[in-house]
Q: What sequence folds into this?
């Protein structure tokens, strides 16, 4: 699966949208979802939580392993994807669309990659 060019990426395999009215949407990449295998549990930050770029803010558990979720930005969580909490498989089946994880009012970003740099980073 190719990485959408309109997104930015982290070396921890998260993606984020450009901020709209100061808010970015965050998820994990298809590469990460494939590497994890079938996601069986998702722990996300709660609305109102402060997240810090590069710091752990949640957890994804699969049939293979447990993986920390890192925030690519610093800011306040303004929405979580209830559909993913109700159906964890959305992270695997639609990582760039329906499987988004949470939205943050952005204060600062970590080091981000464009789609071409991320694809090179994962060896694609």
A:
């Amino acid at each position: 699966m190719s990485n959408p060019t309109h997104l930015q990426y982290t070396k921890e395999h998260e993606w984020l949208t450009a901020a709209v009215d100061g808010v970015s949407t965050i998820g994990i990449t298809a590469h990460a979802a494939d590497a994890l295998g079938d996601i069986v549990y998702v722990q996300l930050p709660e609305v109102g939580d402060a997240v810090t770029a590069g710091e752990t803010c949640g957890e994804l558990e699969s049939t293979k392993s447990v993986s920390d979720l890192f925030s690519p930005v610093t800011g306040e969580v303004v929405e979580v994807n209830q559909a993913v909490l109700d159906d964890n498989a959305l992270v695997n089946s639609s990582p760039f669309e329906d499987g988004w994880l949470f939205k943050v009012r952005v204060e600062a970003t970590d080091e981000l990659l464009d789609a071409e740099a991320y694809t090179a980073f994962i060896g694609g």
Observations:
- The helical segments are 30-36, 82-86, 90-93, 115-121.
